[in-house]
Amino acid sequence: MGWFVRARASIHTVSLWFELVGLVAMAAMGLTTLVDVIGSKVFNLPLPGSTEIIGVVQILAIAGGLAFSKIDGRQIRVDILFEWLPRRGQAVIDVFSALLGLGFSAVAAWMCYLHGLSFLESGTKTFFLGIPLSPFAFWTALCWVPMCFVIIGELLSAVAGMLR
Q1: How far apart are the first and last CA of the chain?
Q2: Whole-number Å distance between alpha carbons of 156 and 164
Q3: Domain range spanning residue 62?
């Protein structure tokens, strides 16, 4: 089980770095909004393309926090009926839930990657500033990868709980 602990620690570290990128992106969104509001209200000079900047940086922020929010337990889970089940029943539901989440996460990663390829091939950019959109789709696809590994860890733990 030493490899499992090391793998989980590595996934935790990568997820933390991704979340830090997301936090920097959140700060950039706040700073962009601040500059835009002060510029338009005080100097009558709004920040050109601020909506586009916030839109693409928001992708960095949201995708960056995916895996760490799962690790940190910040995702929604409904436990009303779950608590009444015996341990084995809870483990079966955990396995099913993890399999479903893993399938969704893998498909989301793949679809974001394909979306990034289509953006890259077509040269899709934002309208006003011309920011290429493919790096943001690839970033989102990359952020789904640690999420898949976090769910695989949960799946292994749930299977171990089911076999106990």
Answers
A1: 16
A2: 12
A3: 2-163
